[in-house]
Design brief:
By secondary structure, this protein is α/β, with parallel strands linked by helices. The chain has a single domain, classed as Aldolase class I (TIM Barrel), CATH 3.20.20.70. It has twelve helices and eight strands. Strands 1-2-3-4-5-6-7-8 form an eight-stranded parallel barrel, surrounded by four helices. α6 links the parallel β5 and β6. The termini are far apart.
Length: 245
């Protein structure tokens, strides 16, 4: 198994807790950050721009993705322009469709033509990747986020799925494929094998990277020790004589 420092895929921390983000920024293997309105709401964020500017004051060398939340094309474009103005390390997240299912291609095309660095998000299919690729500017960097974890939740193997997406983006040298919503550390190594440029991970998953390459017999013993320790601490007892009777 490859060591973490041998991985080619870039790990972006996904979250909305400022203290957690600042701690992640200290780790050499964390190369960027993403967030979204759902994560921000769960973290108790009430002022979107204040949160973003507080983050960007300290995170200046890593790419950071912030998402528009308008649900109409003009609103998305207007919000994207504001978000892009917050910093040169900002990628603007634009969902691949509206809540009504309308493809946001015109928004992606307009913003890319203006030089806005996008992160097109909530993508599930290779067909969506192909449609997005058509809207991107060849000279403007962009991220294409495919929610491989959610794809796997439907019973589809995400590995060949993501390989197909990677092949589609081959004609766009400045477009990076991002494996979104991973479920386990294994997904990081799968994303690396596929050739994904980026994978987003929660802080908890990043912490689990310390288990990569761990001796499985040691892990087995530690698990048994945990069961024993917890059973003892709970004062569980079984009376063999009474059970026999």
């Amino acid at each position: 198994m490859r060591a973490v420092n041998e991985l080619r895929v870039k790990i972006y921390a996904d979250g909305a807790d400022l203290d957690g983000i600042f701690n992640m920024a200290k780790l050499a293997h964390v190369k960027g950050f993403t967030t979204n309105p759902t994560l921000m709401r769960k973290a108790g964020v009430t002022n979107y721009e204040s949160f973003a500017r507080s983050l960007l004051e300290k995170v200046t060398q890593h790419p950071v993705s912030f998402e528009v939340f308008a649900d109409d094309f003009p609103g998305m474009v207007a919000q994207a322009r504001v978000i892009a103005s917050w910093g040169t390390n900002v990628n603007v997240k634009v969902p691949v469709m509206t809540t009504r299912g309308a493809f946001t291609g015109p928004v992606i095309h307009a913003l890319a033509a203006e030089g806005v660095q996008l992160n097109v998000t909530a993508i599930m299919t290779p067909e969506q990747v192909a449609a997005v690729a058509e809207m991107l500017d060849d000279d403007v960097p962009a991220i294409v986020s495919v929610f491989a974890g959610r794809v796997a939740d439907t019973g589809i193997d995400p590995v060949p799925h993501m390989r197909a997406c990677k092949d589609i983006l081959g004609a766009k040298p400045k477009a990076q494929l991002l494996w979104a919503s991973p479920r386990e550390v294994l997904n990081i190594f799968q994303a690396d094998d596929v050739g994904c440029h980026i994978i987003t991970c929660s802080n908890d998953m990043i912490a689990k990277l310390s288990l990569a390459g761990k001796d499985l017999l040691d892990y087995s013993r530690e698990t048994v020790q945990m069961f024993y320790r917890d059973a003892t601490a709970s004062s569980f007892s079984i009376n063999p004589a009474k059970s026999a009777a």
